[in-house]
Amino acid sequence: MIQYPVNLIVEGRPCLVVGGGAVAAQKAAALVACGADVHVVAERIGPEVRALPVTWEERSYTPGEVSGFRLVVAAADSLSTNATVYDDGEAAGVWVNSADDPDHCSFTLPAVVRRGSLMVAVSTGGRSPALASWLKERLATEIGPEYEVLVDLLAAEREAVRADGRSTEGLNWQKALDSDMLDLIKNGHVADARERLQACLSSSSD
Fold first, then answer.
1. Can you tell me the distance from the alpha carbon of 90 to that of 33, in angstroms, rounded to the nearest whole number?
2. 56-80 burial, b for 16+ CB within 10 Å, e for fewer?
3. Cβ distance 112 to 129 under 8 Å?
4. Model confidence over 85-105: pLDDT tens digits?
5. What's the CA gap between 90 and 113, in Å, rounded?
6. What DSSP string describes 114-134?
7. Whole-structure pTM value
8. How many CA atoms lie within 13 A of 185 on its CB side?
9. Cα–Cα distance between 24 and 75 in angstroms, integer?
10. pLDDT for 154-163, tens place per residue?
């Protein structure tokens, strides 16, 4: 099945995690990191979940309660519970991810490398999480912290161009990226990298 890639904005939106163990805690923490308003329901809430800035209830999942949430992750120890959560989500039009159960997912979660605003996602469509994690680690060694600075420089220059009343279209951003900007950033010469960026964009607009 071909999946449609999308980055969801969950900040301030209610999200439900069903399950109270280590996997559920991992899923809840990822949502919290993106600013979601996370509620956890499970018959037993483990210490990892309790340590997170989430609300939680130590009880069984109530059929149909997914309807009060924008996004749901089913990570309970019981496969039947996870299946019920998925079925409820389908009925209510709520997106549900079931941990390690692609047949009960309306969305899957990729392995992610983050460098500030830069996010590189690796997905096998739920078929092999191990491969996705392995590729993520390989990419993490290639995409260092300098890429976070690179994104910030590019974004700042883009805003400066727009503030000047000019279009960002038609500027040779590729030329700038193909220059030695990244090496300059790696070596701590951020100001020089900014000048290189501006020079490349200026020459492309002549």
1. 26
2. beeeebeeebbeebbbbbbbbebee
3. no
4. 999 999 999 999 998 888 999
5. 30
6. EETTEEEEE--TTS-HHHHHH
7. 0.86
8. 22
9. 5
10. 999 999 999 9
Encoding tokens for residue 165? Answer: 């009343």
Alpha carbon 27 to its chain centroid, in Å, reads 11
DSSP of the chain: ----------TT-EEEEE--SHHHHHHHHHHHHTT-EEEEEESS--HHHHTSS-EEEESPPPTTGGGG-SEEEE--S-HHHHHHHHHHHHHHT-EEEETT-GGG-SS---EEEEETTEEEEE--TTS-HHHHHHHHHHHHHHS-THHHHHHHHHHHHHHHHHHTT--STTS-HHHHHHTTHHHHHHTT-HHHHHHHHHHHHHHHH-
pLDDT in tens, 1-20: 789 999 999 999 999 999 99
- Report strand pairing: 118-122 vs 111-115: antiparallel
Instruction: Give per-residue pLDDT as tens, 140-153.
Output: 999 999 999 999 99
Residue 92 CA, chain-centre distance (Å), reads: 24
Question: How far from chain centre, in Å, is Cα 49?
Answer: 20
- Is the sign of the CA dihedral 119, 123, 126, 130 positive or negative? negative
